[in-house]
Amino acid sequence: MKQILIVEVSPRTGVSASRKVTEKLSARLRSEFPDAKLAHRDLAIDKMPHLDDSMLKAISAKDPAEIQANKASGRLSDELIDELLASDLLVIATPMWNFGIPSLLKAWIDLVVRAGKTFNYTETGVQGLAKEKKAILIIASGGVFSDGPWKAWDFVEPYLRQILKFIGIEDVQTVRVEGLNIPPLAGVAIPNAEVAVEQLIL
Ligand SMILES: Cc1cc2nc3c(=O)[nH]c(=O)nc-3n(C[C@H](O)[C@H](O)[C@H](O)COP(=O)(O)O)c2cc1C
């Protein structure tokens, strides 16, 4: 393992459940892979811009002159993609907000899922270019979504698994920190997730 990329999302620094469980995972990663570089993207601090006209031209134009003219606008996307492609393991730690991912994370995804860089359209379909990587998702939520009546409302894990598969990352494990707003579960959600972290196959 040469590099591990940890993407954190929650702005609730100090009290965030997803961050607390990520700390536990980081400690395990540091102990099991002492030589690996831990790259850290904190999207609550390092906020990603939404794609604008110039950025779209930089990342999707076909005309070389147009690409050149907008090169500077594509630099952040280039940098984030290089960081992702250089990593063997991607950790995404995120809260569920309104049944989906926070737009902070969606903005990062919009910058890294890019034709010709992380996926290609081929005659036989889409080819993911982020090969031989693993991912771990740490998902915190007030309710319970891993099973039961609210499972169908979960647009976090299915979406993240699908978009990672699209770019070639199919080995994905999930740790749920769930039931944080349900009194009987709230007290055990983090300890249970920490046990799940110990059981992850690294
Ligand atoms: C804006 C917002 C929207 C939320 N939407 C949901 C939701 O749709 N479903 C849910 O179960 N919990 C929801 N929650 C609760 C969070 O998922 C929960 O507080 C979780 O702990 C957040 O992760 P964090 O502690 O890492 O910030 C929401 C919280 C906020 C602040």
TrEMBL record:
Domain Flavodoxin-like fold per the UniProt entry, residue ranges: 2-193
Enzyme class: oxidoreductase
Cofactor binding, per record: Binds 1 FMN per subunit.
UniProt entry tagged with the keyword NAD: yes
EC numbers for this chain: 1.6.5.-, 1.7.1.17
Xref: InterPro entries: Flavodoxin_fold, Flavoprotein-like_sf, FMN-dep_NADH:Q_OxRdtase_AzoR1, NADH:quinone_OxRdtase_FMN_depd
Cofactor(s) demanded: FMN
Quaternary structure and interacting proteins, as annotated: Homodimer.
The protein's name in its UniProt record: FMN dependent NADH:quinone oxidoreductase
Record organism: Methylomonas paludis
